[in-house]
Design goal:
Elements (H helix, E strand, L loop, with lengths): L20 H12 L10 H11 L1 H14 L16 H15 L5 H7 L6 H5 L5 H20 L8 E2 L1 H14 L7 H6 L2 E3 L11 E3 L7 H32 L3 H22 L2 H4 L2 H8 L17 E2 L19 H9 L7 H10 L4 H12 L3 H7 L4 H30 L13 H13 L6
Parallel strand pairs: 1-4
Antiparallel strand pairs: 2-3
Helix pairs in contact: 1-15, 2-3, 2-16, 3-10, 4-7, 5-7, 7-8, 10-11, 10-14, 11-18, 13-18, 14-16, 18-19
The structure holds protoporphyrin IX containing FE (HEM).
Protoporphyrin IX containing FE binds next to helix 10, helix 14, helix 18 and helix 19.
Length: about 450
């Protein structure tokens, strides 16, 4: 395997002033990619690109999305094979090691683990599920190393953790940091496989510290993803209907979107049943932090043995879920230009490549909004979608306030896990959504 440090684009300064954040992430991931990734591990993005180029590919993917939206299908791999048992057992032990941490014991233990054999896995035609499982192992080890030991946060990740992690990230075409897809989408299982993906029948695969609040926080997201499935799957058939003037088909799609968002709101409303805002603020959110605009890591993170300069990336955030951007795209909801839109564009680079491609395809598809503007009988159902999306954003922003801003005592100034000043930003997004109602 070629040394990752000498990727084709060479080292880049983390603080390059002229380059946008999105471009920085793209360049960083690209510098890990072609030469350093074994050819057989590159087939995922290629397969998806091919599928998305053909109209029947869209329909196929759309149908597949129907079952469980952006949740992986097949469902997340619970364990890698026997060759990887050493790292699986270490991950089983991580919550105990976090509880026992002190005087550097957790960091010592993690940095002394044998390096995960990422190159062997990547060179062995892994399934996408195996790559995500390996990514989960490495992301939990790295974030445990950085955030779960008291004292000053280190600004260097040892090569034994950094190198395999970066290789896996490059196979999956995402930056080497914990993302929503790893933390939420690939981190659950059903208790009874014959029953639906819903609270009461799902549990997490792995945790940092563990406990009720941490698991529930993630499981609410999983149920929301499942509830959004039919709405997301209806988008492309709805756009196809608009293209051929099938008003009933467009109406069916909008109806499905409105119902889906209502179901998402019901699930979001269950967050406080078992996730206490205080525990979330004090314990759950810390290990999901990133190293961009984070005062605890002002220079970002040096990935030892990978890049010569430190890198800055945003941490895991619900803004990396593909549901809302897909619905915004379907309904033609646009947000004002500015840093917030740039931030959301950067968040897309943390999504699985095929989800990014799906959203991009929706955005350039036939406009449901323009169709409704011509066929005024559809205005009530379109406006119902806008009203419910506004309500979801309203409810979500109240949660963000209750779970973060009010705990910190800095109502306007607190930053979210993604490193943004979120209170005014979320308010602006809700307002922009509401303004898309046609009958307003
Ligand atoms: C207690 C639970 C939650 C809290 C405290 C919370 C917090 C936040 C914060 C602070 C942001 C600002 C951006 C950032 O910091 O990255 C954000 C953005 C976002 N979150 Fe959440 N979130 C929660 C639950 C959810 C859930 C369940 C979803 C559903 C998938 C979600 C989806 C989003 C989206 C899509 C954005 C981008 C802004 C938008 O499009 O409206 N969040 N969240």
């Amino acid at each position: 395997m070629q040394c990752l440090r000498h990727g084709p684009s060479g080292p880049i300064s983390a603080g390059h002033s002229k380059r946008s954040r999105k471009n920085e992430v793209i360049t960083a991931v690209a510098s890990l990619t072609p030469a350093s990734v074994p050819a057989r591990a590159r087939h995922f993005s290629a397969a998806w690109t091919d599928q998305l180029r053909s109209p029947s590919g869209f329909t196929e993917r759309s149908r597949a999305l129907g079952a469980q939206g952006f949740l992986p299908s097949p469902e997340p791999l619970q364990r890698l094979g026997p060759a990887y048992e050493l790292w699986e057992k270490a991950l089983d032990d991580l919550p105990k090691r976090i509880i026992a941490a002190g005087s550097g014991s957790l960091r010592r233990w993690l940095s002394e683990l044998p390096p995960f054999p990422a190159a062997a896995l990547a060179g062995n035609a892994p399934s996408e599920a195996e790559l995500w499982r390996a990514m989960l192992l490495q992301s939990f080890f790295a974030h445990g190393y950085l955030w779960q030991e008291d004292g000053k946060t280190p600004d260097l990740l040892p090569a034994s953790l950094a190198k395999p992690w970066c290789l896996l990230a490059s196979c999956l075409q995402v930056p080497p940091i914990l993302n929503y897809s790893t933390y939420i989408l690939h981190n659950w299982r059903r208790l009874d496989p014959s029953k639906p993906i819903e609270l009461g029948n799902i549990v997490c695969l792995n945790n940092f510290m563990g406990g009720l609040d941490e698991e529930w926080f993630r499981l609410v997201h999983v149920e929301i993803e499942a509830k959004a499935g039919p709405a997301v799957a209806s988008i492309m058939p709805g756009q196809a209907a608009a293209a051929v003037g099938d008003t009933e088909g467009v109406e069916r799609c909008l109806q499905c979107i409105a119902e889906g968002i209502s179901a998402m709101c019901v699930t979001l409303g269950r967050m406080t049943e078992k996730c206490d805002p205080h525990i979330y603020y004090e314990r759950v959110r810390l290990p999901t932090s990133g190293w961009r605009d984070n005062p605890a890591m002002p220079n970002g993170l040096l990935y030892e043995g990978v890049w010569a300069e430190p890198r800055q990336f945003h941490g895991a955030s619900g803004a990396q879920s593909s549901i809302i951007p897909a619905l915004d795209g379907a309904l033609g909801v646009q947000h004002p230009a500015g840093w917030l839109r740039d931030y959301l564009a950067t968040m897309r680079l943390h999504m699985p490549a095929q989800h990014r491609a799906f959203i991009a395809a929706v955005e350039v598809g036939p406009s449901l909004r323009e169709y409704v503007q011509i066929h005024s009988e559809l205005v009530p159902v379109y406006d119902a979608c806008i009203e419910r999306l506004t309500a979801f954003r309203q409810q979500h922003s109240a949660f963000a306030r209750n779970f973060i801003a009010q705990r910190s005592g800095k109502a306007e100034g607190e930053k979210g896990t993604g490193g943004t000043l979120f209170t005014p930003a979320l308010r602006a997004m809700k307002q922009a959504t509401a303004e898309h109602a046609i009958s307003r």
